[in-house]
Amino acid sequence: MKKLIPVFYLIMAMAIISCGSNPYAKTNRLHKKQAMAYSKQLQQFPTPENQKESALNYGDYWVGTTNFNLRKPNYVVIHHTAQDSVGQTLTTFTLPRTQVSSHYVIAKNGEIFHMLNDYYRAWHGGIGKWGNNTDLNSSSLGIEIDNNGKEEFTDLQINSLIELLKEIKEKYSIPDENFIGHSDIAPSRKVDPNANFPWKRLAEEGFGFWYDEAEVENLKLEAEFFKPNPLAIHFNNRLNTRIPFIDKLVFPEVIPADFNVENALKIIGFDTSDLEAAKSAFKLHFIQKDLDQPFGKHDLKVLYQLHKKYL
After folding, report:
1. Which of 74, 183, 282, 290 is the most buried (most CB within 10 A)?
2. What is the per-residue pLDDT for 8?
3. Torsion sign (Cα): 243, 245, 251, 256
4. How far apart are CA 65 and CA 152, in angstroms?
């Protein structure tokens, strides 16, 4: 018995050291407990007894299909944490009372914390909409980047983010256009990631869309392009009437006077129930300057060129 005592203490010491090395050991145990509870729910099968209690007209017996798998994410929503440190964010995401979480958190030094299995539904998007999708939490992965909302993102962070996105995109076959920001899906209440976020660089890597700057420069508004000739003699006949369809074919660089900003924003995916908020979210993502200014000519040209990519 005396020989066993040192071994017992050694094992206990190793266990204490192991737990002490991870400051989130306690919440990790809670995480595992909750995951086990969900796994039990997934293993519950309908029974004739349960179905008889329902008012629905069920068949006489349950038939389980042999063809199924887990649901997979089809969007990635990128956030900034709006907190002072990655430690503060990790703590926030491990407190049940906060009711907020994310699949990944990226620290300023580029470290990636994978906080939730990709097949689980994180609570990162909240109330939002993209296209006809009104529950982004159920179909997306959330990535939080340690940033107080005003500062630049570090190169280490962005490099880690791009490598992570490459892995996620290949694993789940997520389309280019489905890499979006929190402000995109919730324009009336969110402004993350902030204007320092390199959306153009991400688009060049295949994560999200960006506009062709040279093409935007060549665009002209209809009122600028079709200037009336003061010397012209106007006759009241059909020859003096332009045909919009022909104009689009012959003058593709001209933005029609009836170009609908709201419809274009909808085509991209923005919720336009608050049109001004949608315009602001568009500018935050694609213009990233003069954010306090009204929607101007350059913004309109960028929107016109960009919305065609989503058609």
Report:
1. 183
2. 46
3. positive
4. 51
| Mean pLDDT to the nearest integer, 104-113 | 98
Tokens of 226: 């079709």
- Give the pair of three-digit tokens for residue 250: 């012959």
Bridge partners for 180 per DSSP: 77
pLDDT one-digit tens code per residue, 214-230: 999 999 998 775 555 44
Per-residue confidence (pLDDT) for residue 248, from 0 to 100: 60
Strands 104-106, 112-114: pairing is antiparallel
pLDDT at 151 over 80: yes
Separation between Cα atoms, residue 189 and residue 185, nearest integer Å:
10
In the set 144, 167, 170, 262, the catalytic residue is 144
User: Is 217 one of the annotated active-site residues of the chain?
Assistant: no
Q: How far apart are CA 235 and CA 233, in angstroms?
A: 6
Write the single-letter amino acid at 205. E
Q: What is the 3-state secondary structure (H, E, C) of the chain?
A: CCCHHHHHHHHHHHHHHHHHCCCCHHHHHHHHHHHHHHHHHHCCCCCHHHHHCCCCCCCCCCCCCCCCCCCCCCEEEEEECCCCCHHHHHHHCCCHHHCCCCCEEECCCCCEEECCCCCCCCCCCCCCCECCECCHHHCEEEEEECCCCCCCCCHHHHHHHHHHHHHHHHHHCCCHHHEEEHHHHCCCCCCCCCCCCCHHHHHHCCCCCCCCHHHHHHCEEHHHHCCCCCCCCCCCCHHHCCCHHHHHHHCCCEECCCCCHHHHHHHHCCCCCCHHHHHHHHHHHHCCCCCCCCCCHHHHHHHHHHHHHHC
φ/ψ of 142, rounded to 5, equals -105, 130
Residue in the block written with tokens 């159920």 = 138
- For residues 305 and 253, the answer to whether their CB atoms sit within 8 Å is no
Tokens of 243: 């045909």
Burial of 22 (0-12, 13-18, 19+ CB in 10 A): exposed
Distance between CA 82 and CA 109 in Å, rounded? Answer: 17
